[in-house]
Amino acid sequence: MTAGLTIVNGSNTVQIDENYKNLALASKVAISTTITPGGSNWGNYQHADVVYTSRYAEPPMVAVEASEASFVMLLSTSGNTFTYRIVFLAAGSTVAGTFWIFDQPPSASSSTFGLQVFDAQGRLTFDALFRYARVVGRMSVPFQNSADPDQQFVVPAGRKYIAVQSVCGTYAQSNPISIPGQPPSFDRVIVMRMIRNAPGLLQTSKYTFSYQMSFAMPSLRRTAEYTILDMTDA
Question: Which residues, including other chains, have CB under 8 Å from residue 46's CB and lie 6 or more apart?
């Protein structure tokens, strides 16, 4: 930029200028789970659905804060309205938690104090009162074998970290079952990777289930990916 405000850190990396772009906290939704007997899309497990209409066409970034492990799926999309399902596979009873939603911030602000930065066209690019997503780390948890270990991310004392699920870790394998005199069958084993807020930690865990099939399905090895945000005081 040839003129205007530029803020750099101690390493001389630009932190804020007229080109600043980041998602900001749009909503925190209190969730409480339910079970739908025989429900599809994991509805027969403890789950909660959240509907959100984004400011623009792009889907928001979401995260779950709960003491029970969960994964998130996009259940449906209609225009810029998105329905998410948070699934707690291992929960034996109702789970309460918080669903964090991050969206593109508005192009204008009603703030009457604090730092604001605009581009050359007068569009708001930064507002100090917006709660921007602050990335502090990542977790990548391989799933080449069903026994691959879980991982944890240490949360410093006094801080609130939440995990954004970028990819839901999944392991799936069809194992042949040999029973004399019976048609071929297969034991389909599926292991899902989830994450929870433990005291001082973000901790992944696995949930395993299986069922029999008359045919084999392709194997699946999907590494779990999480982005860690520091949302202390948000």
Answer: 33, 34, 35, 68, 87, 88, 89, 91, 93, 94, 95
